[in-house]
Write a structure and sequence with these properties.
80% helix, single chain, 76 residues, mainly alpha
Length: 76
């Protein structure tokens, strides 16, 4: 059984991923998804944050997270 702290963390992660999916959908429609993801990933890494939520959101959007990992690595 999950503790209330773990449950809150899970719900928080789900909310972040859902929010990213909404933003990524808009950016994809605008044709700005690639530069937006690159910028977001760069800022996250600069702050020592994980890219897990970004890749999870991309996967929910129907994108291949492994392809994005490669693209982001190539841009470093």
């Amino acid at each position: 059984m999950q503790s209330s702290k773990q449950l809150m963390r899970t719900k928080s992660t789900q909310w972040r991923v859902a929010s990213l999916v909404d933003i990524f959908e808009d950016k994809k429609l605008d044709g700005n998804l690639t530069p937006y993801i690159s910028s977001l990933a760069s800022r996250a890494l600069a702050h020592g944050s994980s890219l897990r939520d970004i890749f999870e959101a991309l996967e929910e959007l129907g994108e291949d997270p492994n392809s994005w990992r490669s693209r982001l690595r190539d841009n470093e």
